What we know:
The chain is of the alpha+beta class. It has one domain. It is 29% helix and 29% strand. It is built from 11 helices and 15 strands. The protein has helices at residues 11-26, 44-53, 92-95, 167-175, 182-199, 201-209, 214-220, 227-247, 367-377, 390-393, 396-404, and strands at residues 58-59, 73-77, 84-91, 98-99, 103-107, 112-120, 125-137, 148-161, 256-265, 268-270, 275-279, 284-293, 297-311, 316-329, 340-344. The chain has an 8-stranded antiparallel barrel with strand order 3-6-7-8-9-12-13-14, surrounded by 4 helices. A 4-stranded antiparallel β-sheet has the order 4-5-11-10. Helix 1 (11-26) packs across helix 5 (182-199) and helix 5 (182-199) runs antiparallel to helix 9. 47% of the residues are buried.
Amino acid sequence: MCELTVIKRHAVLGGALLIMLPVLSVAETMDDFSSLMQLPIRNVEEVKSTAAQASSQIPGPTVYLDGKTPLSTMLSPVKKGHAVRYLFSYPVKANGITLNETHIMMPMYKKIQSTYFRKVQGMKIEEIGVANQKYFPQKNGAVFGKNVTVGVAEKMLGYWRNKLDITALKRAQTSSNVTAPVNVVEKKNTLVILAAGASGMGTQILAASGIPDKMTMEKIREGTLVPDRIGKKAIKLRRKLLKFFKETVPSTEPKFSFASCLHWDDVQIDEIKGVVTFPKKTRLSTYRGTQASAPFTAMDFLQGVSFWTYHEPTGRVELHFSASIHSHWPDPKGADSAPAMVYYGSYDGDSEIGLQPAAFNPVPPSEMAYQLSMGASLYPDDYSYLFQPRSALCQQSKIDTIKSNFKCYR
């Protein structure tokens, strides 16, 4: 719950709050500071060199997340296939999942736990961890579009990644001796959120990502998947996932974490039974958002296709998500700080590049947003809370207050 206290670092965090609020409301914190971190893998020189050398990359729109400071974006095609692939693996009995010949029913409002494997082509990331999720209805759509009917709030806890960078951890550790009064922290938070709203940050980021892409949605809705096509690609992910958790006993302290969300178009909900009803082996239009912050922020937005299967040998339900569009919005002071990247792959994961994001920025600079952001920067950065035990940060009274303010709780 206490990820809500993390939004005081930079105006970018306010924009993330506007998009990720359901996630932050139900994400569960870990006592260790490292679990609050996303660890970027590239340095600035590598990013600039890659952007300069790749003739296929083209400049994208400039955005102004604090209302004034320009942030460049780069549109970059990935190799043949999808830009990102996820495999989530859920034990059926432990999570109270039910299924029949045609559908998989996931319970709503209850914590569901899965293992996951993530493969990101553009950033050359492979990652394994555990995801804690809660499903809830979105009757009025979401920022990704009016057709969204179901959402998932998620906390991803990573145990392995092929490359790690602890720049942000060191930055927080050197500043952790600053403890600001509560009223100062509240003033900083307020200014950050107002600045994000005034800058139209969420609108800028989604439009500059080319999300939602109508052609992607149309192609997904053309018919059901041929399961062998993408399913074969998931075999390698499944093998790596099973091998890791068979040979490795994860510590109680993950190495990094994300607050994330998943959203689906046109998926049915059974309010009486309290379940989300997913058709098996059926192509579903899907979106994803991911945020990491402590003390920085990094955000990722994805659009693509997902489908559900039951893997009988392991007795686990699997969610396969493949993104055609993946945008990465880096830590302003981190190792991968510039530019923001929009990676795009094919629609179906097999053909050559067939997607060109319609990326643009409809929001002009805002002097008001910039002044609010500068006002927030005048208050001290207090990272001391990151090193406090959960018992001190998440008193039951705070948890009850947060729950009462969100309809996704019963």
